[in-house]
Amino acid sequence: MIFIHVMAGSILFDIDEADLNTCFVENREQFENYNLYAWPIWCCNTNELEQDLQKDKYKCYVISASLGLTGYVFAKALKIKRK
């Protein structure tokens, strides 16, 4: 998962499912830059990451919030628990 501009007191607005292919098209440069710092640790390159996530049926969830918590999570499913 990658979060950018995290600030204390952020309020979660929404979590949207995004197309995995679109996520890679829009963020390929970011993935390749983070690959230099061993992220993600299980892949050698961005293409391999994309293929592995597709093969294992992962989805991309985009998170938006009030004070700059933005980012995405790769997961197989999303489950929201209400109190």
Secondary-structure topology with pairs:
Layout: E1 2-4, E2 12-18, H1 20-35, H2 46-55, E3 59-65, E4 70-75
Antiparallel strand pairs: 1-4, 2-3, 3-4
Notes on the protein architecture:
The protein has helices spanning about 20-35, 45-55, and strands at about 1-5, 10-20, 60-65, 70-75. The chain is α+β, with helices and mostly antiparallel strands and about 80 residues long. The chain has one domain. Strands 1-4-3-2 form a 4-stranded antiparallel β-sheet. The model has no long low-confidence stretch (mean pLDDT about 80).
Secondary-structure element order, N to C? EEHHEE
Proportion of residues in β-strands: 25-35%
Low-confidence stretches: none
Mean pLDDT: 82
Main sheet: strand order:
1-4-3-2
Concise synopsis of the structure shown:
The protein has 2 helices and 4 strands, in the order ββααββ. By secondary structure, it is α+β, with helices and mostly antiparallel strands. The protein has one domain (2-75).
Overview features:
globular; 4 strands; alpha+beta; 83 residues; 4-stranded antiparallel sheet
